[in-house]
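In the design runs reported in the main text, the only information available to the sequence generator was the tokenized backbone. The following block is the verbatim input for one such run; it is reproduced so that readers can re-run the procedure and compare outputs position by position.
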């Protein structure tokens, strides 16, 4: 298939929650493509974040960009219809968090959303052998899930290359997303390993300037400049 267009997906985990709607408006206005939505349950991962009501609130606020909901919860099936109803575009989950992965993927699609699987740093890609035809996204974690602001794990590059080959050989329209430690100085290398969708939290929202806390143009532009150099 033709090379996927690069998409930048700021993670709102690093945004200012006191003015979340405004933050999302500003980051999309600055050129971001997708809103990445980290859902943690203090069970599957050691942290607690946000649920469907926040997703619904962003839609009611007027956010029209795709919302990419990354479920770090166990079990997952119960919460999927709630996020679909709240306005999720993509719903991705970890295979370890589902008793029946194929069924969970079908549930997501039956609810009208695009479906994806998430692979932790030590989770093998073997699951793809059986469910590739039900996927719209593969998300490779380049940090261990549960906290923002972690450093990129270099072995994720090899996993990206493997996943890219699997996608290309299949001929299917599947996005390849990376999440964790993505910064201006490594996004080109990550793209060259095969990623086409880039989650960045602290690298984006941490770049706000004191004189203009609403301006994310410079960091998004820096990402685009580096991606333009990717071979």
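Verbatim output:
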């Amino acid at each position: 298939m033709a090379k996927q267009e690069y998409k930048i997906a700021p993670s709102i985990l690093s945004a200012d929650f006191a003015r979340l709607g405004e933050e999302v408006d500003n980051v999309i206005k600055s050129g971001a493509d997708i809103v990445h939505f980290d859902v943690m349950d203090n069970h599957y991962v050691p942290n607690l974040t946000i649920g469907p009501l926040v997703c619904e609130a962003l839609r009611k606020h007027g956010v029209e960009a795709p919302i990419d909901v990354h479920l770090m919860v166990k079990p997952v099936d119960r919460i999927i219809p709630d996020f679909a109803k709240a306005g999720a575009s993509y719903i991705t989950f970890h295979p370890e968090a589902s008793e029946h992965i194929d069924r969970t993927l079908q549930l997501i699609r039956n609810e009208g959303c695009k479906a994806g699987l998430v692979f932790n740093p030590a989770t093998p890609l073997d699951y793809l052998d059986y469910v590739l035809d039900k996927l719209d996204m593969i998300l490779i974690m380049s940090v261990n899930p549960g906290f923002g602001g972690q450093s990129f794990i270099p072995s994720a590059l090899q996993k990206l290359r493997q996943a890219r080959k699997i996608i290309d050989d299949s001929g299917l329209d599947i996005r390849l997303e990376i999440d964790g430690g993505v910064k201006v100085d490594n996004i080109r290398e990550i793209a060259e390993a095969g990623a086409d969708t880039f989650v960045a939290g602290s690298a984006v929202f941490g770049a706000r300037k004191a004189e203009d806390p609403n301006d994310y143009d410079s960091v998004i532009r820096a990402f685009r400049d580096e991606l333009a150099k990717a071979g």
